[in-house]
Structures are given as C-alpha cells and as structure tokens.
Amino acid sequence: MAQNETFILHAALDGRRSVYRDIEIDPAKSLYKLAEAIVQAFGFDFDHAFGFYTGLTLSKIKVVHPQYELFADMGQADPGVLGVEKTRIFHAFPQAGHTLLFLFDYGDDWLFRITLKATGIKQPKARYPRVVAAKGKAPEQYPQADEDEIDGPRIGINPRTGEVISFGKK
Which residues lie closer than 8 Å to 79 by C-beta, 6 or more apart? Predict the structure, then answer.
C-alpha cells in the first residue's frame, strides 16, 4: 500500500442497492473510521454498535470469519471476533472487489454491502473521508410512526354501561 493511496469503497444499502454512496478514504484508517464515514454519508446518527462481516447474508453473518465488531474492542465479543478500532481498512479489504457486510444498529439491523471499488491517489488539500458519488435518497434512520403504531389501539370503558370501547386501529 502506497503512502498516498486512497480506497474508494462502494456502500450500498442492502435490499435497496440503487441507494449508495462511494466513499474515498485513507486505507490506513481503522474500520471504526470507515463505519463513521458510512453512517455520516447516509445522514444517520453514529449512535449504535456495529460490525463488519465476511458472511454476506444474515444466516451467515455470525458463521463466516473474519468478523470485526465494536464489541470486541469493548471485550464483549465472541471468541475469534476482531476489533474495529485497531483493524486497518487495507487489512479488511485486501483487493478490489472484496465485499463485507456492514451491520449498523443491532436492533434495527441497517445492512450495507461495502465493496472495495477502486484505489485512488490522495489529492492536495482534499479532506478524507469524502463522498465521491451518491445515488438515491437515504432512508430515515428513525422513521416517524403514526400514533396508533406506537401505542396500538386504546381501550377504555364506558362509565355508564361498563362496555369496553376500543379507539384507534386494531
């Protein structure tokens, strides 16, 4: 890896591959920094745990190694799982075309396919990481649910008859 080299990584929202961001970054940076760049590129808050996985489906995500998780850096990962803070991007993406699944927020399961698309050369005065291509509108990280979806139907009792009354959607 040359000192002035960059990696251009294609980050596509899994299931909506027409929504993507190409991110140019210094390959000597950590996977933690790459995760931060991906999350920012999609306009999400960087407020959840995450991991990068060689298994490219949910059924294989915890089976195929290597796996890189923030939990490993906190001492809470399964044996054999590597951390994201010390793992350099060039170690996780050894050649063009290499793909990892990025799982952000283990509750909402935001999945992104990250592929090393190409290498580049650092440009003078450019700030990295940077988005070099974008397509599609990013979804809302926390979509607004209507009140009935949050609370479900409301139930009350008619004080005159004792009848149970349901308000809202069932």
Answer: none
Separation of alpha carbons 45 and 41, rounded Å: 10
Which letter, b or e, does each residue of 8-32 get, where b requires 16 or more Cβ atoms within 10 Å of its Cβ?
bbbbbbbeeeebbbbbbbbbebbbb
First to last CA, the chain: 59
**13 strand-pairing partners:** 16, 112
To 5 degrees, how large is the angle CA 42–CA 108–CA 87?
65
pTM: 0.83
CA 24-26-32 angle, 5° bins: 95
pLDDT per residue over 52-86, tens digit each?
A: 999 998 889 989 999 999 999 999 999 999 999 99
> What DSSP designation does 138 have?
P
Residue 139: which of 102, 99, 169, 112 has the closest Cα?
112
Q: Sign (positive/negative) of CA torsion 112, 26, 31, 96?
A: positive
